[in-house]
Design a protein that fits this description.
Helix content: 25-40%
Shape: globular
CATH class: Alpha Beta
Number of domains: 1
Number of strands: 13
Bound molecules: 1-O-pyrophosphono-5-O-phosphono-alpha-D-ribofuranose, uracil, magnesium ion
Distance between the termini: 29 Å
Strand content: 25-35%
Largest sheet: 6 strands, mixed
Strand order of the largest sheet: 5-4-3-6-8-10
Number of helices: 6
Radius of gyration: 18 Å
Structural class: alpha/beta
Amino acid sequence: MIDHPLAQAILTTLRNRDTKQIEFRKGLVRLGRLMGYEIVKSMDIENVEVETPLGVKARGVRIRDLDHVVIIQVLRAAMPLVEGLVKIFANARMGVVSARRVEESHSPGSLDFDIEITYVKVPRILGDDTLIVADPMLATGSTITAVLKHVLKYGSPKRVIIASVIATKYGIERVLREYPFSEIYTVAIDPEINERGYIVPGLGDAGDRAFGSQ
Ligand SMILES: O=P(O)(O)OC[C@H]1O[C@H](OP(=O)(O)OP(=O)(O)O)[C@H](O)[C@@H]1O
Ligand SMILES: O=c1cc[nH]c(=O)[nH]1
Ligand SMILES: [Mg+2]
């Protein structure tokens, strides 16, 4: 969990029902950038030496994995989050998956949703890639597990990272049961999922709030 005070403060703004669309969208962008910093902290560092314009050697570092990143954005709520992530992973290759929870067929007795995937465009994934699948809400895990099933057909990455803003214990356990090698980054783990599949206390419908469609 990302407990950086700035990430927690931004999340608090996102949770607030009075936060308007533009501020909400900007908050997701800022969280994407912070999440990028956190992910970089987990990457291996190589010590290198460079020569400065003074003709003197200086010790520094290189993060080789920075150049081997594939980011998948799950439409639609991930778009602002990815805008922030690419500020950190500027050389990332990018994929898009359009996924929708089929709310019409959701029965109140079950937590999980059917997921309609209508578009998948993913670059080839190589063995030394870090795959980052961005989706701000990890509620029942129905979306992320359906997305991973499609995306992992494009190759086997070195790491699979899920970048979310709010997750639930139920969703995390489901993802880790189906994809035990995945690593979940999140800013909060909320206690409940209501009968309509919303995270409680949550922040509402991330897609609707970011794109002004409620
Ligand atoms: O873990 P889950 O229970 O699957 O829920 C999470 C998904 O729900 C939302 O998508 P939605 O279908 O509302 O699409 P949207 O992003 O276009 O609003 C959200 O953006 C996630 O993708
Ligand atoms: O609370 C939730 C759950 C899924 N998707 C959202 O946007 N919000
Ligand atoms: Mg939605």
